[in-house]
Design brief:
The structure is a single chain. This protein is of the alpha/beta class. The chain has three domains: 111 residues, ATPase, nucleotide binding domain (Nucleotidyltransferase, domain 5), CATH 3.30.420.40; 149 residues, ATPase, nucleotide binding domain (Nucleotidyltransferase, domain 5); 44 residues, no CATH class. Helix content is 35%, strand content 24%. It is built from nine helices and 13 strands. The strands form three sheets. The protein has a five-stranded mixed sheet with strand order 3-2-1-4-5, with helices on both faces. A five-stranded mixed sheet has the order 8-7-6-9-10, sandwiched between helices. A three-stranded antiparallel sheet has the order 11-12-13, covered by helices on one side. A hairpin with an 8-residue loop joins strand 11 and strand 12. Helix 6 packs antiparallel against helix 7 and helix 7 crosses helix 8. The longest helix has 18 residues.
């Protein structure tokens, strides 16, 4: 018996399997590339090939693409990223107080007290400090993103970089390069700037207390971890599966849900070979004129989303 968690984000799609005791069995990290349906199907093909006789007891989805993926796979529970990350982290450490999460296109902070979410904030407006921005700077400097952090921690004299805006940060980095500063000092300066931006924007007014988890794809950057520890004056921990915590949380929530509903709605890994299409129409039911998207398998509509009132999305799928 296994529990499946699917986290569909704007940059990556993560799939994980947990066993009955919520131990991590396997995980898949894929680039979404603007095609969440294709990404989920690709992950299912991998799992189907590796575990041909696997029994999925329940499935859950999270992330910005959680609704579309829930229709696709037949999820038993659909939860937002805040809840999913909190559940996964508290499973590792019930005394956790703060989660710093930076993903490919957004960042968030989650404040936990007595094992529940007490406060949170998200930044989805500016790309500064997110994984996609760091990817771009690594590419521009000709340094593999996997080595970005190791460059930063070698710096003895980080330069000050303007980090409040992605455009200004890149311009300032170029200027510092022209002045002859080393790559390691520029990269460490960038990490410090992005942490300052995070703390003054996303975490503004938040009561940050230890124990602190740093997760999301950017947590792989040891330079960012070091900058957070310097700015906060506290130790920051990176959990083992830092880049899949949302999917892990979705799988845990799926286990909780199946104990209530009894029978799973999961459609199986064979959907990897199905042909799904998306069609949209404008609903004329009210002045909102919502664009409603139908997810179809051949001529059968398996799910709808995009409406504000639930007129279409609440209809039972074929």
């Amino acid at each position: 018996m296994y529990y499946l968690g699917v986290d569909v984000g704007s940059v990556s799609t993560d799939l994980v399997l947990l066993d009955e005791d919520l131990n991590f069995i396997d995980g898949i990290y894929l680039r979404t590339k603007g095609r969440p349906i294709n990404a989920v199907q690709e992950g299912f093909k991998i799992f189907k090939k590796k575990y041909c006789d696997i029994n999925i007891k329940a499935a859950g989805t999270t992330g910005s693409g959680r609704q579309i993926s829930s229709f696709l796979i037949g999820a038993d529970v659909v939860k937002n990223e805040i809840t999913a990350h909190a559940v996964a982290s508290l499973q590792l450490d019930p005394d956790l107080k703060t989660i710093l999460e930076i993903g490919g296109q957004d960042s968030k902070i989650i404040i936990l007290r007595d094992g529940v979410v007490n406060d949170f904030a998200m930044n989805t407006v500016c790309a500064a400090g997110t994984g996609s921005f760091l990817d771009r700077q690594a590419e521009r400097l000709g340094i593999p993103i996997e080595e970005f952090g190791s460059f930063a921690v070698k710096s003895d004299n980080p330069v000050r970089i303007a980090g409040r805006c992605a455009v200004f940060a890149e311009s300032d980095m170029i200027h510092k390069q022209q002045l002859g500063f080393s790559d390691k000092d520029i990269i460490r300066g960038l990490c410090d700037a992005l942490v300052r931006n995070y703390l003054s924007n996303v975490a503004k007014g938040k009561d940050i207390k230890p124990k602190i988890f740093f997760q999301g794809g950017v947590a792989a950057n040891t330079g960012m971890k070091a900058s957070f520890e310097k700015a906060l004056g506290m130790e920051v921990f990176v959990p083992e599966h830092y880049d899949m915590m949302g999917a892990i949380g979705a799988a845990i929530l799926a286990k909780d849900q199946i104990q209530k509903i009894g029978v799973s709605k999961f459609k199986g890994f064979d959907i990897a070979d199905s042909n799904f299409t998306s069609r949209s129409f404008e609903c004329s039911g009210c002045s909102n004129r919502c664009e409603v998207i139908n997810i179809c398998n051949l001529e059968n509509i398996i799910g709808c989303f995009g409406d504000r009132c639930g007129k279409w999305s609440n209809k039972k799928a074929v």
